[in-house]
Amino acid sequence: MNDEAEEMAGILISVLVEVEKTAPGLSLGQLVMFLHILRLEGVRMTALSELCGRHDAVVSRGVRAMAVAGDAGTLEPAYGLVELLRGSDARSRHLAPTTAGMALADRLSRLIVRRAARFSEAEESCGLA
Q: Distance of CA 81 to CAs 59, 88, 114, 128, Å?
């Protein structure tokens, strides 16, 4: 494995470890859903299904497991990362990160930036940049 691939693998591992600390057992599919919700705050459940390439029922279960404990329709383990908002049409549900979800996103962002900066510094010190 070359240095760049090794560093990218290290960054990804660090991200996954941080996610596991915050939401033990969160599946890779749920992480992908969460990342789409961060990117597209207010995304509708049906659009999220299309983005993830999954059936509506699978996405609905995944999102409800990431919702806040005690909210209507929440499934265990209720990670508290996502909230389901009702639109003007009561049937449509929009998704947004909770405060806890945004805190996780901030930690991941800082982690990625920090690791990438270290890699850039190492490249420069070796005369590779």
A: 15, 23, 23, 40
User: What is the rounded CA–CA span in Å between residue 122 and residue 65?
Assistant: 40
Nearest alpha carbon to residue 18 among 119, 117, 109? 109
For the entire predicted model, the pTM comes to 0.86
CATH of 3-125 given 2.130.10.10, 3.40.50.300, 1.10.10.10, 3.30.230.70: 1.10.10.10
Q: For residue 43, which amino acid is it?
A: V
Summarize pLDDT for 34-61 with one digit per residue, the tens: 999 999 999 999 999 999 999 999 999 9
Biggest CA pair distance of the chain: 59
